[in-house]
From TrEMBL:
Keywords: Signal. This is DUF4430 domain-containing protein. The keyword Signal applies. It comes from the Bacteria. Residues 1-18 form the signal peptide. It comes from Faecalicoccus acidiformans.
Length: 137
């Protein structure tokens, strides 16, 4: 009986510790250099480093937390699609302009020659991304 009680307590402790999330620390912070260009109007809307203190792993996670960029996204067939940044929005998906992004520092983007969907793209501290509102691609 004593062994059974010890086994039950051990399983309970293992189960409880497996469901607890580790607490966030400052090492969870991710800093990206973000450049936002409205190519249609010929203006740079944002060009600076942004740091998100929460643990984020994908570009879409980062953008959702970056309040200063005012990013609006929607879930699409191939992942999250950027609809608007800094108040500049795609009005007609058939005609454009559209939001595109690229990186010359993110390993996945460099290896593929293009970036995958923001919700699929794993980011690393120090990556740099350029978002361009364009009617050509």
């Amino acid at each position: 009986m004593k062994k059974l009680l010890m086994l039950c307590l051990s399983l309970c402790l293992i189960g409880c510790s497996a469901t607890q999330k580790p607490e966030s620390s400052s090492s969870d912070a991710v800093t990206l250099h973000i450049t936002v260009i409205n190519e249609v109007e010929g203006e740079t809307l944002f060009d600076d480093d942004l740091t998100i203190e929460k643990g984020v792993s994908t570009l879409s996670d980062f953008l959702e937390e970056a309040d200063s960029l005012e990013v609006i996204m929607e879930e699409g067939e191939y992942g999250k699609t950027i609809l608007s940044i800094c108040g500049v929005a795609t009005e007609d998906w058939n005609k454009g302009p559209w939001w595109l992004f690229e990186s010359d520092t993110n390993q996945a983007c460099v290896e593929a020659g293009m970036c995958p969907a923001a919700s699929e793209l794993t980011i690393e501290d120090g990556d740099s991304f350029t978002f361009t509102y364009t009617d050509t691609f």
